[in-house]
Amino acid sequence: MASIPDLTKDVAHHLGDMFRNELRLARVEAVESAKSMSGAMVQLGVGIAFATAAVMLGFLAVANGFSIYIPMWAGLAIAAFAAALAALIFILSARATISPKNLSLPKTRDQIGRDIQSIKEHLPS
Fold first, then answer.
1. Residue 124 lies in a domain
2. CA distance linking residue 77 with residue 75, whole number of Å
3. Number of domains in the chain
4. Which domain holds residue 12?
5. Widest pairwise Cα distance in the chain
6. Where are the alpha helices (DSSP H) in the chain?
7. What are the CA-CA distances from residue 92 to residues 41, 98, 103 (Å)?
8. What is the pLDDT of residues 20-69, one digit of tens each?
9. Which residues are CB-contacts of 28 (< 8 A; sequence separation ≥ 6)?
10. Exposed, middle or buried, 81 (CB in 10 Å: 0-12/13-18/19+)?
């Protein structure tokens, strides 16, 4: 039969192992999450570059078309407002994709919950 100091050392050793394993899991999960996020960021950047060029050319064409009926500055102002609205839509869409929810560590959270439950079950009442 093991003594209380031996049991205490054993529990401390197991808790240390569990803690190290949780840190490893959290690190792996965070790296995976960051990798998937970085791919989305690259795609977002490329999309923004192409969208900027297309939008600028399109809105300049619209502003020139408006200049037949209204002053050029007013046509440019209308085109700028429309471009700002489009930018807002794209930014809000990207922001939803790049949210803190996507950076959560659900596997780590679940594993820690199971570890705590296991510790509670094995502790004497």
1. no
2. 5
3. 1
4. 4-117
5. 97
6. 4-66, 72-97, 106-122
7. 14, 10, 18
8. 888 788 788 778 777 777 777 888 888 989 988 887 888 888 888 888 89
9. none
10. exposed
* Token pair for 77: 């102002």
Cβ pair 115, 18 in contact under 8 A? yes
The verdict on residue 58 lying in a domain is yes
User: Which pair of structure tokens corresponds to residue 44?
Assistant: 């977002």
Asked if residue 79 is part of any domain, the answer here is yes
Q: Is the dihedral of CA 20, 25, 28, 29 positive or negative?
A: negative
In whole angstroms, how far apart are CA 85 and each of 47, 54, 58, 94? 16, 15, 14, 14
SS3 at position 71: coil
Amino acid at 90: F
Note whether residue 123 is domain-resident. no
CB-CB contact of 103 with 37 (8 Å)? yes
Close Cβ partners of 15 (under 8 Å, ≥ 6 residues apart): 119
| Cα 12 to Cα 62: distance, rounded to the nearest angstrom | 72
Model pTM score: 0.41
